[in-house]
Structures are given as structure tokens and as C-alpha cells.
Write a structure and sequence with these properties.
The complex is a heterodimer of chains A (about 280) and B (about 250). With about 280 residues, chain A is mostly helical. Chain A has 11 helices and 2 strands; from the N terminus they run H-H-E-E-H-H-H-H-H-H-H-H-H. Chain A starts with 5 loop residues before the first helix and ends with a helix. With about 250 residues, chain B is of the alpha/beta class. The chains are: A mainly alpha (about 280), B alpha/beta (about 250). The interface between A and B is medium-sized, with 22 and 29 residues.
Chain lengths: ~280, ~250
């Protein structure tokens, strides 16, 4: 067999990689496109702000939007302070050693737990043991467990990427460690930390398995965090499974997707403006 | 308290885990002069200068033996206030390291860390500090622009201003010009010659010409040892130690 010329190999590799990239992008575009095209027809103000009728076969999805927002806000409110705090401790206050390895291993294990298992835990701990019953609070707390490892890891990466020289200067100016963290390290790491949080928002909004166990499936608009509620993701799961109202399901799915995409785009836009300001 | 030698070491030994980085270094730095430390890479000159504000504390496994005196006080005494020490002996680093904040916030960083929050006070300190490094006229109208937009020379000046803002008495410089071009370097050297009227300056440099130009005294280090220390002119013209002669003659480093 004759030897293939390196330039030919280069050409083949380039084409193959381009093809792979194209497949990935096409898949993404077609999933998003399909859902939005099929769902956008039912989206109007009455759909977004109306109450569901006949188990969601007709009417709107307002209660489910409210529930989704509740779940997202609760889980972020719990996991951001915990996650950021752990990340700061691991990077700034603790030398690399067996302790950090154990903690990190634990975090990775937590990240690896299937969400349905976390849901079961949330059910037995928050719903039953703590008597929070099926509520947005139970659901939000359970989801926070799911995104916590994710927030820790992404914040840790972002903090680690801050040049060591900034810390040295902060110390050399006579500051304490906490001052170097709050005044220098965190502001520099903010874009990376925010990116992690934004991706976490997507996970919160889309989470189904664990929320069904813990927040319930009530059709009513929740009045407080102690009420049961049905998120958009659960709503369209139930619509498809139990009512077969597929156009309404696509409508909910499209609402969800558009919400996530607009959060992402806004956040990236703000981030870019922020980055331009500082660097 | 020996006022005329604000920086002193007595039989200073420093280890990074098992590596013996400074060997029995005893030296005294004269007040309100520029003292240069020269030597090849890895000779311990940066390590030595970082002893005086205890920056080596941030490196894990670093261990110090012997005494280090700043303004006559043993800085490893148990009652040492690190914040106060670092206020007294400020440091300029090799690469200009402005924080990714505005020019104003960079200079105000130190005073804020030390509890100053009154706006009129901060304004005064920022103006004075920028004036001391000759940046005020250039920058007074763009104080709220990002510091990272400045040229490398301006950035290094800004770092010196940030230091001046906490009113130190000693400035430790760790190769402050090695990231700058020759013109910027000569500007910073001029600045040092002005600053030395108010400050004691200890500068680490790998640039022998720079040491010869700016310093009154020069220390030559090799492999963690202080080989020779004396007046700059004497060190460069009539070194006593053969190793100094060889280094200055361009044999190593």
C-alpha cells in the first residue's frame, strides 16, 4: 500500500472535523427549531397568562411558569451561597492535599447521582422527615442539591483562573485573605462564576424527575413556597403521558426553551459588556 | 532602634521544603537609598526581597531561620501585625499588576483595605499618589476608565501609585522593569531616583546596568549566598570576590 501523503491526511482530517461540527450544530438547531416551530403556534398572551382548563388540554400555563420560577429562585438562593462558599474555601483557604481531594471526590459523587435518586431522597427527607410536604420549597431544595456540585466546580474553575499575582498584590497592600477574595479575586472571577450559574438555571428549569417527587403536580397557581406546584417541564411531561394534548405540550416546551434561551442570551450580553468594562 | 538601617537580616536561612534557598544571609539596607540585589536566576534574590514583607508566608513549605528586622523590629516576633508590616514595606512586582478595576479603584484599593471610606479623603489620596508617579496630569480626566487600558509603563507607575497610597516607608521592587521596554525602564528609573528622597528602596534586578545606574549599594548573590555587598561603584569596579568579578564580567547568568 502506498503511503498516504501527510497533506492528504490533513485534508481528510479537516473535512471529517468540519463534518462532525456540522452534525452537532445541525442536531442542536433542529431540536430547538422543531420544538419552537411546533409550539410557537399556541403561544399567545392568553396561553402565557391564562389558567389551564380541563387538565391543561386547553387554556394557559401561567401557574406552571410561576412554579418554575419559584423552583429556580429557591434552588439558586440555596446553592449559590453554598457553592460559592465551598469553592472559595477549596481554592483560597485550603492548601491542596488529602482533604481537598476527599471533598472534591464527594462533590463529583454528588454530581453523579441520578436526579430520580435525588428526588427519592428529597421526598423522604424534605417532604416526609421535615414535613415540608409536596411543596415548591421541597422541590427547590432538592434541585439545589442537584446543581450544587455543578456550581462548586464551575466557580472553582473560575476562581482558579484568576492570576496568582493579583492575590500577591492584594496581600502586599496589607489586606487580609478575605479582603483579597472579596475585593479582587471574586470580581475577577465573576464572569466565569456567572456562566456556571446561568447554565445551572437551565438545569433548574428543565429538571423533572426529582421535582415530580417533591413539588407535586398541583394545577393551581402557588401562593407561597409551601404550596405544591407543577413546573412547565412536568406539565408537558404529564400532558403527553396523560392527556395526549401534544400541541399544548409543544407550546409549554417552546415556552420553556425560549425562556432558557433568552436567559442565556441576556446573560452573555451582560457578561460581554462587563468584560469589556474590566479588560 | 537603628533608624538608619530599616531593613536588616541576621543569619537568615530560608528553606522551601528541603531546598535551601537562602544561606546565612546577613545584610543591612541603608535608609533613603536605592540598594540593588543582583545575581543570576534562581540565586535567591527575589526570595530575599520577599522576606521583608513576609510574602514567602504565602508559599507552602517555606521555613525561615534567623532574624529579619524591619525598622528594628523582628518581623517574626509573635506580636507582629502583618497588615502594619506590609503597609510599612510595600512591594512592586515584576509584571505590572493593576487589578481589572478602574484607575481610581486601583489606587484607592490600599486605603480602602485599611478602612478609609470617606470620599474626599480618597480623592485626595488618589490625586497625591498619582502625582507622585507623574500620572495625574495624563489621567486626571479618565480616573474611571479601566486600568488595563493603560500602557505597560503607565500600569507599572499606577502600581507604584497604588503602593504610595498606603504611605509606606520602604519600597521593595522585584524586577520592576523586566516587562518594560528600555525607554519605559529609564522613566521608571528616573521615578525611583525621585522616590528615594522619601523612601528606602530595595530593588532586585537581573539588569546589571540598571543596578550600576540607580543604586548606591549593590549586593551580589549566588546560589542562595550573599557573596559580596558594598558600594555600587566599588562592586562594579573592584569586586573583591572572584565570583562577583566573573558575574560582572559576564561569565554566568
Amino acid at each position: 500500500m502506498t503511503r498516504v501523503h501527510p497533506k492528504t491526511k490533513e485534508f481528510i482530517a479537516k473535512m471529517a472535523l468540519r463534518g462532525i461540527a456540522a452534525v452537532v450544530i445541525l442536531t442542536l438547531v433542529s431540536i430547538v427549531g422543531y420544538v419552537i416551530v411546533k409550539g410557537v403556534a399556541v403561544i399567545d398572551l392568553k396561553f402565557l397568562f391564562g389558567q389551564p382548563r380541563s387538565m391543561g388540554r386547553e387554556g394557559g400555563v401561567f401557574p406552571f411558569i410561576v412554579s418554575s420560577i419559584y423552583i429556580t429562585v429557591i434552588s439558586l438562593a440555596v446553592s449559590i451561597p453554598l457553592g460559592l462558599g465551598s469553592a472559595i474555601y477549596l481554592t483560597e483557604y485550603r492548601a491542596e492535599g488529602w482533604a481537598t481531594k476527599v471533598i472534591r471526590f464527594g462533590i463529583d459523587c454528588l454530581a453523579g447521582i441520578p436526579s430520580i435518586v435525588l428526588g427519592l431522597f428529597g421526598f423522604s427527607f424534605f417532604v416526609k422527615f421535615l414535613h415540608l410536604s409536596w411543596s415548591l420549597l421541597s422541590g427547590g431544595l432538592t434541585v439545589s442539591l442537584m446543581i450544587l456540585p455543578f456550581i462548586i466546580r464551575s466557580s472553582e474553575e473560575a476562581i482558579r483562573a484568576v492570576p496568582q499575582s493579583y492575590r500577591e498584590v492584594a496581600f502586599a497592600a496589607g489586606g487580609t485573605k478575605w479582603q483579597s477574595v472579596t475585593r479582587v479575586v471574586l470580581p475577577c472571577a465573576l464572569p466565569g462564576v456567572m456562566t456556571g450559574i446561568i447554565l445551572a438555571i437551565g438545569k433548574c428549569v428543565g429538571e423533572t424527575a426529582s421535582v415530580i417527587f417533591t413539588a407535586g403536580t398541583s394545577l393551581r397557581t402557588p401562593q407561597s413556597v409551601f404550596d405544591s406546584g407543577r413546573t412547565l417541564a412536568i406539565h408537558f411531561y404529564l400532558l403527553v403521558r396523560e392527556t395526549g394534548a401534544s400541541d399544548m405540550a409543544y407550546g409549554s416546551a417552546a415556552t420553556l426553551l425560549i425562556a432558557i434561551l433568552s436567559v442565556n442570551f441576556t446573560a452573555y450580553y451582560l457578561m460581554r459588556r462587563f468584560l469589556r468594562r474590566v479588560s | 532602634m537603628d533608624k538608619s538601617y530599616p531593613l536588616q537580616t541576621r543569619n537568615l536561612n530560608l528553606y522551601y521544603r528541603k531546598f535551601h534557598a537562602l544561606k546565612d544571609v546577613t545584610m543591612s539596607v541603608e535608609a533613603r537609598t536605592i540598594t540593588a540585589i543582583i545575581g543570576p536566576s534562581g540565586c535567591g534574590k527575589s526570595t530575599l526581597v520577599r522576606c521583608f514583607n513576609r510574602m514567602n508566608d504565602t508559599i507552602l513549605g517555606a521555613r525561615v531561620e534567623g532574624r529579619i528586622l524591619v525598622e528594628g523590629r523582628d518581623i517574626y516576633a509573635p506580636d507582629t501585625d502583618l497588615t502594619q508590616l506590609r503597609k510599612t514595606a510595600g512591594m512592586v512586582f515584576q509584571h505590572p499588576t493593576p487589578f481589572p478595576l478602574s484607575i481610581f479603584d486601583n489606587v484607592a484599593y490600599g486605603p480602602r483595605v485599611h478602612g478609609e471610606s470617606r470620599p474626599e479623603e480618597l480623592n485626595g489620596i488618589v490625586e497625591q499618589s498619582l502625582q507622585s508617579v507623574h500620572l495625574w496630569d495624563e489621567l486626571k480626566d479618565r480616573l474611571h476608565e479601566p486600568a488595563l487600558d493603560l500602557s505597560p509603563e503607565q500600569q507599572q507607575r499606577l502600581c507604584i501609585a497604588r503602593l504610595a497610597a498606603v504611605r509606606p516607608r520602604i519600597i521593595l521592587m522585584d524586577e520592576p522593569c523586566s516587562a518594560l521596554d528600555p525607554i519605559a525602564t529609564s522613566h521608571i528609573e528616573e521615578l525611583m531616583e525621585e522616590l528615594v528622597r522619601d523612601y528606602t528602596i530595595l530593588i532586585v534586578t537581573h539588569n546589571m546596568a540598571q543596578a550600576a545606574r540607580v543604586s548606591k549599594n549593590t549586593a551580589f548573590m549566588l546560589l542562595g549566598e550573599l557573596v559580596e555587598y558594598g558600594e555600587t561603584a566599588r562592586i562594579f569596579q573592584a569586586p573583591k570576590d572572584n565570583r562577583t568579578k566573573e558575574y560582572i564580567g559576564g561569565r554566568y547568568g
